[in-house]
Amino acid sequence: MKTKSRWSVRLGLPEWAKHTYERSPEDPLQLLGSARRGMQNGALAKLEGKFVLVVGDHVTPLSHADNKDIAALMARAAPVDQTPLFQPAPVRTAPPVVVVIKRRRVPAPH
C-alpha cells in the first residue's frame, strides 16, 4: 500500500522566484514552482528529465522515489495561471486633498 506523498508542490513564477532567479532561455533548467518536504525546500525544476531542487545557484538532485512522488503530484496539478499577482497602482489625475486644521495656541504661564 502506497502512503501519501510528503511533498508539497506549488506551481508558478511567484513560487520559484522566492528561491532562485530567472534563467536564460538556453539554460537546460526548466523552473516549475516550489517544493517542500520537512526542512528540505526550494524551487522545483526539471533538468534532463529529472526533478531537482534549486536554491540560488545550488542544484540538488532528488532521489528516484522523490522523482516518482513529485511526478505523480505534477500529473494531478492544475495548470498555472500566469496572471500577475499585483495590479499596478491607478494613475491619479489630481493630487489628494489635504485639510489643515489650525489649533488655537494658549501661552503657558512661566
Short description:
Helices cover 15% and strands 27% of the residues. With 110 residues, it is an alpha+beta fold.
Keywords summarizing the entry:
alpha+beta, 110 residues
Describe the structure.
The protein has 110 residues and is α+β, with helices and mostly antiparallel strands. The chain is built from two helices and five strands; from the N terminus they run βαββββα. Strands 1-2-3-4-5 form a five-stranded antiparallel beta sheet. Strand 3 and strand 4 form a beta hairpin. The longest helix is centred in the middle third of the chain and has 13 residues. The model has no long low-confidence stretch (mean pLDDT 85).
- Alpha-carbon distance between the two ends: 88 Å
Give the oligomeric state of the chains in this entry, treating copies of one chain as homo and distinct chains as hetero. Answer: single chain
Shape: elongated
Poorly predicted runs are none
The helix/strand order is EHEEEEH
* Helical content band: 10-25%
Rg of Cα set = 25 Å
List strands and helices in order, with pairings.
Blueprint: E1 8-11, H1 13-16, E2 30-37, E3 40-47, E4 50-55, E5 58-61, H2 64-76
Antiparallel strand pairs: 1-2, 2-3, 3-4, 4-5
